[in-house]
Specification:
It is a single chain. With 314 residues, the chain is α+β, with helices and mostly antiparallel strands. It is built from eight helices and 15 strands. The chain has helices at residues 17-30, 44-59, 71-81, 112-116, 149-160, 169-182, 240-251, 255-258, and strands spanning 2-7, 34-38, 63-69, 87-93, 119-132, 135-141, 144-148, 186-192, 195-208, 230-236, 265-270, 272-277, 282-286, 289-293, 296-309.
Length: 314
């Protein structure tokens, strides 16, 4: 088994990456089975992961590729590894959100020795099919898709954190409050199992494989990453006062159990979902990264990737 660490030096505002890189470089000097790869730009991790998968297939030697960064880095590495043989996906959460690993609270993802001794399991992933400037595209997702209020907040957060005045958590909370001022959602048609689940304005919707989004918001508390189904949560267009009342329940994963549905929320499970905007394009986030498209079809790929989990202490 070979071990490769693909590191995004800008994840988590760069606070964790420098000491982490130093630790891996020291480990690499002691072991010939470890390599380190520093990304330099958008989708660079996908290119590097794909190249490592090529080598694994050609040599017939297994490789465990660690995505070292946030959920966006994890998404890029996933897209480089999906469909390849002799590969396992690992996660080192040194980003700012790190939502996917929250599905595994018993595992220490920052313990490198436990990671190297990890055991592979299989998890579902989501396949997105859509058009971008007339070109048909597929993209794979491991955690979830957010459209509307929380998606808009994540997009604005990504832009604000690039500015020196908006570092750390300040950029996310600023994005949330700016979106509260506008209460901007989307106008969508959402279809699953040949049924129209919703047609019209919403505040937000999430199609999720995992339980968490937005840096710890437990939006889909019933989600399991290996049950062959995606969770679909729709929050209808509500007043600002109502949303502020709902927000603590939504954040803590209590919305479905403690807030009567009424005209507030809808919840479904399905393995194939279609989302179509009333306008030509919609903005949304895929594992925290911004995407623009028209209609998007989301399909669950059951047991779509081998995921390495850190070894548990005896």
């Amino acid at each position: 088994m070979k071990y490769a660490f693909i590191i995004n030096p800008n994840s988590g505002f760069g606070k964790k990456s420098k000491p982490f890189i130093a630790n891996i470089e020291k480990l690499m000097a002691e072991r010939a089975d470890i390599s380190i790869h520093i990304t330099e730009g958008i989708m660079d991790a996908t290119i590097v992961a794909s190249g490592l998968a090529d080598i694994a297939e050609n040599t017939k030697e297994d490789i465990r590729v660690f995505a070292c960064g946030g959920d966006g880095t994890l998404n890029e590495v996933l897209n480089g590894l999906y469909g390849r043989t002799n590969v396992e996906l690992g996660v080192i959460p040194i980003g700012s959100g790190n939502d996917f690993v929250r599905n595994y609270p018993s595992h220490d993802f920052l313990d490198i020795e436990s990671q190297l001794n990890g055991i592979a399991t299989t998890v579902d992933i989501l396949k997105l099919s859509y058009e971008d400037e007339g070109n048909k595209k597929n993209r794979y997702c491991i955690n979830g898709i957010n459209i509307g209020f929380d998606g808009n907040a994540a997009i604005l957060h990504n832009h604000l954190k690039q500015k020196k005045l908006f570092r750390g958590s300040l950029s996310y909370f600023t994005a949330v409050f700016m979106n509260l001022a506008e209460m901007r959602g989307q106008n969508l048609k959402i279809i699953a199992d040949d049924k129209v689940l919703h047609a019209g304005e919403i505040l937000l919707t999430t199609v999720s494989n995992g339980r968490f989004c937005g840096g710890g918001v437990e939006s889909c508390p019933n989600a399991l990453v290996d049950d062959g189904l995606a969770e679909i949560l729709i929050i209808n267009k509500v007043t600002r006062r109502t949303f502020l009342r709902l927000m603590p329940y939504y954040i803590k994963g209590k919305l479905l159990s403690e807030v009567e549905a009424g005209n507030i929320w809808k919840y479904f499970q399905s393995d194939k979902i279609s989302i179509e905007p009333a306008s030509e394009l919609m903005q949304f986030v895929v594992d925290g990264e911004e995407v623009k498209s028209g209609k998007v079809i989301i399909e669950v790929i059951k047991k779509g990737i081998k995921l390495s989990l850190p070894a548990l202490e005896n």
